[in-house]
Automatic annotation (TrEMBL), chains A, B:
Domain Acyl-CoA dehydrogenase/oxidase N-terminal residues, every copy: 74-157
Entry similarity comment: Belongs to the acyl-CoA dehydrogenase family.
Needed cofactors: FAD
Keywords of the record: FAD, Flavoprotein, Oxidoreductase
Subunit structure: Homotetramer.
Name the record gives this protein: Acyl-CoA dehydrogenase
Segments forming domain Acyl-CoA dehydrogenase/oxidase C-terminal: 284-454
Gene Ontology molecular function: flavin adenine dinucleotide binding; oxidoreductase activity, acting on the CH-CH group of donors
Listed Pfam families: Acyl-CoA_dh_1 (PF00441), Acyl-CoA_dh_C (PF12806), Acyl-CoA_dh_M (PF02770), Acyl-CoA_dh_N (PF02771)
Domain Acetyl-CoA dehydrogenase-like C-terminal: residue ranges: 467-593
Amino acid sequence: MAQLIADRRDVDFVLHEQFEVAELAKNDRFSEFNRKTVDLIITEARNLAIKEILPLQKISDSPGCVFDAGEVKVPEPYHKVYKTYCDGQWLAMSDSPEWGGQGMPTSVGLAANEYFYGACNSFMLFNMLTHGAARLVESFGTKEQKDQVLKNMYSGKWAGTMLLTEPEAGSDVGALTSVAKRNPDGTYSITGSKIFISGGEQDMVENIIHPTLARIEGAPAGTRGISLFLVPKYRIKPDGSPGEFNDVVCTGIEHKMGLHGNATCSLTLGGKGECIGTLIGEENKGMAAMFQMMNEARQMVGLQGFANATASYMYALDYARQRIQTKHMTDPPEAGPAAIIRHPDVRRQLMIMKSMVDGMRSLIYFNGMVQDRHKLSDSPEEKERLRNLEEVLTPIIKGYITDKAFEVCSHGVQVYGGYGYIEEYPVAQLLRDCRIFQIYEGTNGIQSIDLIGRKMGMKKGAAFMAFLEEIRKTIDMAKGIEAVKPLAENLEKLFNTYTETAAILGKAAGSDKVLDAFAFSHPFLESTGDLCMAWMLLWRAAIAAPKIGQKKKDDAFYNGQVTTARFFINTQLPITAGRLTAIQVMDGAAVAMEDAGFGG
Amino acid sequence: MAQLIADRRDVDFVLHEQFEVAELAKNDRFSEFNRKTVDLIITEARNLAIKEILPLQKISDSPGCVFDAGEVKVPEPYHKVYKTYCDGQWLAMSDSPEWGGQGMPTSVGLAANEYFYGACNSFMLFNMLTHGAARLVESFGTKEQKDQVLKNMYSGKWAGTMLLTEPEAGSDVGALTSVAKRNPDGTYSITGSKIFISGGEQDMVENIIHPTLARIEGAPAGTRGISLFLVPKYRIKPDGSPGEFNDVVCTGIEHKMGLHGNATCSLTLGGKGECIGTLIGEENKGMAAMFQMMNEARQMVGLQGFANATASYMYALDYARQRIQTKHMTDPPEAGPAAIIRHPDVRRQLMIMKSMVDGMRSLIYFNGMVQDRHKLSDSPEEKERLRNLEEVLTPIIKGYITDKAFEVCSHGVQVYGGYGYIEEYPVAQLLRDCRIFQIYEGTNGIQSIDLIGRKMGMKKGAAFMAFLEEIRKTIDMAKGIEAVKPLAENLEKLFNTYTETAAILGKAAGSDKVLDAFAFSHPFLESTGDLCMAWMLLWRAAIAAPKIGQKKKDDAFYNGQVTTARFFINTQLPITAGRLTAIQVMDGAAVAMEDAGFGG
């Protein structure tokens, strides 16, 4: 049978052959997670995803979540699956056993999540936010706050969200107007309106914890005056159970292009003056705490996009093998119609999809490995290097992967032809659902600004250098393997052009050409992502090439690795090179344009 | 007030300054259509589009068309607008007065249609198909057939469709299995099932004419055995009025990603053995006739995509001017938040949108002018040259413009941020509706194959040479204008690389590298389209540049033309150059990939 959601052979290849995750088990912290256990986890996750979560996908789209008189009802079948999911402790795979987590490596958890999110992103978004909110409390909360909520959240008994956005404070979080007033007992009374709150209200859980950004009365304007509060839907009684309603009212949900199975809520806090929150962390330091959550969320949004892309690829590949249409060009005249996978333009599309999906998978798991190594390292320098690496990878994973995931999902529709546009088939929904990932948790424009404005210069450039060094290592390694040496050399050329371009761009960003530079931040992010795809695909090819010819049954897979790297490096990277040229030229037309010149 | 759908100043610029359509009025055939009349037509079209058709857009999406027991109900407000549209004779703007057409230049009709389609593509698709079907009958029908249907169709009293696709015959029309059986009276009894029939059933008209492809019993397999029939929904009585039901049964409509306001029907013909058709043209020559209709339809699909793109650009531009968010990077610290149009990455997106929309408009109207000149020319050589040009432009207009229209609409969503994903705002629907244009009337993969497989070699390359010659003329003209000379020179370099690449690709397509070549047909189509955009933008800039400084109120517009050309040529064309490099390298990875290597 055709594989669904993800290609298991490839998942295993990345985990075990490219990154050797089972090596982590040599360390006490991960000693349980040997190869056998890892494989079992992935198999269980895959079963759960395919048998339970995937059947939610259609109903998540229609009718989706329903709003009625302040309440949000999730699609009915969510309830049973949610229970199964929580019972399996899948929500806190990589978290500390102290709070109910399973303590597995992040890289392994990501592989399991690839299946879960690919099966039904709407359903998983609830869990993603719960997890992020719990992590926030774990990092910045008081002991009391942790005791109150963490086990309930990591178990999925309670949910979590993230209350940032307001009508006039979207990308510009610092413009928010929600107010927190100090109460004599040390709590705060919160008033304000929040919009675009994913999972802001739902009926699968007995309580919802809303980490909420608000400004304490008298605090400075802008981001420096924002504090973070723990605001429960129901106040928490001394015995830990949910008590009276905390005046967090859902006033409606959005009618969206996709992701209908996750409610995007408008919330009014303290409309009756009865919304009480407790401070998380220090006063006016809310943004820094929220950034940690956002960083995790951004990486997870990258995973969300990737998961739709890998699912769309699996469907398109299967369809291309099944669908018989039109004689193949070089078949003899008497030949019948061929499976469309044989037609060159369909192959081109499948190669784009595969190279993207493979590259994304490797990059995302690599970022997981970076975090796992960070946990294991005793060296402050190494810890810092790894943290830096994660910082640089975050906007690439969020920004580049979600952009390309949308393109991959669009190819999925195209491979299906007319059927791709029909909602009866799965690829249309994957495309629609995917479109938000480029926007939320910081638009991809913001990700590109983060990359050149913050990450390139971070720690005096050390973070960015650490990133480049990783790529350089792979190129050097691959140059030592005869079968992929020409590919390594081609990538090396592009890499050199890239580093030159980065220097030019960095210099311009610090000069009076700053606006011109930032008009190229997105093309630079895209080029950076292309470079990462090529890096990961070369790495894969370098591991695969020496194994070709060893076992007949594996040859197609390993050959496929080398051919995919070859496709991407020789066919797609020249386009990247062209884009880098444009960045180097850095024509200032976009900035020079008079406003009136845009017309309208 | 912000402009809706299209930028009128730019429409006028292309009609009157770039292509001087009013010059056509010097010829008898178009003598009525002087500048004043043309302007009046566009103004009327714009009013009708904005006041009547645009209000249909939301309801076209939801609830859209509804199927009930064999009948399709269009959204109720369609009926009144349809009457107004038909009363204004807008359906047959450029058709012969003999059959009720207005006889205006095609280029002018396209400008009016830009407004209509941009206002509501779902509604207009009904009319597009009626027009295409009528043209088909006009070109290939007998006098009796024309008398029976043409006036009714061009007036919109009756509708038309196009019955090609069957479940196993999508891209491969030749695989169709519908059967026509000769009757003693010269008519044919048709049986078969058709799917994906846009407007196949509806309730705005008293009859529907279905040009239908079927195979006469005993005819050869494949496309050589296909004949075309005129199949009415209701048989036509001797007095010309609709008579008894002709056994064309709508069995359902598709639930699609977009374009809900046009019913995509499954039709069963002759289920009771009572479907009668008459032959259009000769037996077994149906494909050639249908190709004429498809060519018109392909050009119109390009217009459909463009119309969504221009509407999305107008909305995004207006939003970017209104939406205040985040301090501008080079404003002083105390400055408040700025309109997002000032932020460099938003500008970059608006520049991409504008350059695309402007280039598309010029290319589409240019193609209209080519057809107008064809009508006016007495010279067989010139007529042939113009027909060739249209042949080459068709896959570019269909394939490239619809691909880029989807990208433009996606930028429209991105500029809106989170609001872009909400269906309350107009850009999400434009994106969803737009996605089908890349698929129907021949997928864009097929367009790219048409370009390199048919059009490049057509008339021993004369058609393609005529196309290149037009671009060359514009470059030479622009090189003579100091202000745009550097841009012309940059485009010339790309043009030379392009022609080299075309030669390499053409040679490969005729060699044993044929499959590799066709794996690059789509990148070549994309590069060809990029070249056309640059060509048109340079042309615009060359006309605009000398006018700068003449009238103060026009300066922003003319400067905008030059800046847009500069943006596209200096920022986007380097990417095209990279893609051309990849085509020249022509790495065979996509073809070399083993099927099993794709995984799954």
